[in-house]
Write a structure and sequence with these properties.
By secondary structure, this protein is α+β, with helices and mostly antiparallel strands. Helices cover 22% and strands 30% of the residues. The protein starts with 9 loop residues before the first helix and ends in a 7-residue tail after the last strand. 47% of the residues are buried.
């Protein structure tokens, strides 16, 4: 535990609060003024740092090694980030070695230091293990470099270089410390794609039906060509439950290629994914439908496998309401998957999540939002919150909400709304319920050109749906 701030002189009190256990020695690690060190050559910063986050405690892992990054993923650092730092792989003029240190306390976290005395202190006093030099950075700022700040909370450290991460951590109660070192600006890959599975309930009825797994395999094959960063699902993953839970097993196997390829994905809960719907598609108990629609135990038993990128959930060990964070196109993204017709508590939780990520572009995914003709539904059916209320209390309320995806009804539709802060919100419904093929919605974002393109394609029969293509220009992304 850090020393009590009451016994520390005022000029050190804030520093202790920021860096906790290592705060007493952190004074030695504050980056000196630019003139105190020679400027490094900008050309020295040639290597992209591999960044990962541990969702359980939000600790960060930074390394140049692919094998080390993979090992970290197996230790709970399952949320990869688009690189936000370019560093020097070798020493040189104006460069300093950045050591990577680890300790298992507080769920396990890394600390990065350039100061030999500080390294000795955290190893000898606070139980860290020095894993050696991770990369080289600069102590002095330069026009081609950006600062890396250290953040601290509950015994865990985080090292970040982006405005989105700094805003997120500050909003979540992390203490911001001094600049630890300087790194190169990343070379932004401004265009990328994410995919949205529509209702797949018709694809899990027969053991011989391979449409679901074929779609997943196709996306894996297209990963490089499309620069695919994320996959989500709007719900009704299955049609109904049976005694042997065969549909859930088939859905699990159908999504397995994404897991095996390490493609992060998320799922939404549809009404057919709950105990409210019985074989044939009818209500199991019409007198208890409102209660049974919240019974998702079988869904979570088979499909709660989304360790990739999941940052948080409304309820522990349930995927009914989750959020996932990633970076792509040089900006931050937050995918918020919400149960259908949300309970008040789930809606309040969602508000807190969005508020805590003001520099992330928010994508809301829920099973029921738009009607078949593209209007926002005013019916909560047998749930709690109507989509029109969700729009007013969440989607239109926050300036960083950018897109909404839903299924449940109709074929495909698109609408544009304006939030109370003037932000453009693009909402889509895709719910083709195909008996013969396997449509998937692909969304291409280019943050440099400020464009958005959405289209629907079915790989099974090489089927295109040109009338459902949407192109948007002059999109203002949150940075």
């Amino acid at each position: 535990m850090p020393p009590s701030s009451a016994r520390i002189p005022g000029n050190l009190r804030n520093l202790v609060l920021v860096l906790g256990a290592v705060a007493v020695i952190a004074v030695m690690s504050v980056v000196p003024r630019a003139q105190a060190a020679p400027s490094p050559a900008c050309s020295a910063f040639t290597a992209n740092v591999r960044e990962r986050v541990k969702p359980a405690n939000q600790a960060s892992s930074l390394t140049l090694s692919q094998s080390v990054s993979a090992k970290d993923a197996g230790s709970g650092f399952t949320s990869p980030r688009e690189t936000s730092m370019r560093v020097a792989p070798h020493g040189g003029t104006g460069l300093t070695a950045v050591h990577r240190l680890y300790r298992s306390k507080h769920g396990g976290s890394y600390f990065y230091s350039t100061d030999p005395a500080e390294i000795r202190k955290v190893v000898g006093t606070f139980g860290y293990t020095d894993q050696g030099v991770a990369f080289y950075a600069a102590k002095a700022k330069a026009s081609c470099l950006i600062p890396v700040y250290g953040f601290f909370k509950s015994g865990v450290h985080r090292f970040v270089s982006t405005a989105a991460d700094r805003a997120m951590l500050s909003a979540a109660g992390w203490h911001r410390g001094p600049i630890r070192f300087y790194v190169g600006r990343p070379v932004a890959d401004t265009a990328f794609t994410f995919a949205v599975y529509p209702d797949t309930q018709q694809e899990v009825l027969r053991k011989s039906d391979r449409r679901l797994i074929a779609r997943s395999q196709w996306l894996v094959k297209q990963r490089k060509a499309q620069d695919l960063r994320f996959v989500t699902h709007t719900g009704d993953v299955v049609n109904w439950d049976t005694a042997d839970h065969a549909q859930y097993a088939k859905a699990r196997d159908g999504l397995a290629p994404l897991e095996q390829a390490g493609i992060p994905y998320s799922l939404s809960i549809g009404n057919h994914d709950t105990a409210a719907v019985c074989p044939g598609g009818g209500a199991c108990d019409s007198h208890r439908t409102r209660q049974l629609v919240r019974d998702t135990r079988t869904f979570n038993r088979y499909l709660n496998r989304q360790s990739l990128n999941q940052e948080g959930a409304y309820q522990a060990n349930k995927v009914d309401n989750t959020y996932h964070v990633y970076t792509a196109g040089g900006v931050g993204w937050l995918v918020l998957n919400l149960e259908l017709w949300q309970r008040p508590g789930a809606l309040s939780w969602a508000q807190r999540v969005v508020k805590a990520h003001p520099r992330h572009n928010v994508i809301v995914v829920t099973h029921s939002y738009l009607t078949s003709n593209g209007k926002i539904s005013s019916s909560a059916e047998y749930g709690d919150t109507a989509p029109t209320v969700l729009a007013r209390k969440l989607i239109k309320k926050y300036p960083n909400v950018r897109m909404v995806f839903s299924g449940h009804v109709g074929q495909a539709a698109h609408r544009v709304d304006k939030g109370v802060h003037g932000n453009r919100i693009d909402s889509f419904v895709v719910a083709m319920h195909s008996n013969t093929t396997n449509p998937v919605q692909l969304v291409r974002v280019d943050t440099k050109k400020k464009t958005l393109k959405s289209w629907v394609y079915a790989p099974r029969a090489n089927t295109h749906y040109p009338k459902d293509t949407v192109r948007v220009r002059n999109v203002r992304w949150v940075r």
